[in-house]
Amino acid sequence: MKIRGMRLMFKKSKFAVWLIICVVMGVVFILPFFWMISTSLMGTEQIVKYPPEFIPSPATSRSFQYIFENTDFFIYLKNSCIITSLNILGTLVSTTLVAYGFAKYDAPLKKLWFTILMSTMMIPYFVTIIPLYNIYVKLKLVNTIVPLVLPNILAGSGFSIFLLHQFFKTFPREIEESARIDGCSELNILFRIVLPNCTAVLFVVAIFMFVWTWNDYFGPAIFLNDQKKYTLSVGLVFLSKSISGYKDALDQGPVMAMSLLTVLPIMILYCCFQKYFIKGIVDSGLKG
Question: For residues 232 and 127, which has the higher predicted lDDT (pLDDT)?
Answer without folding.
Answer: 232
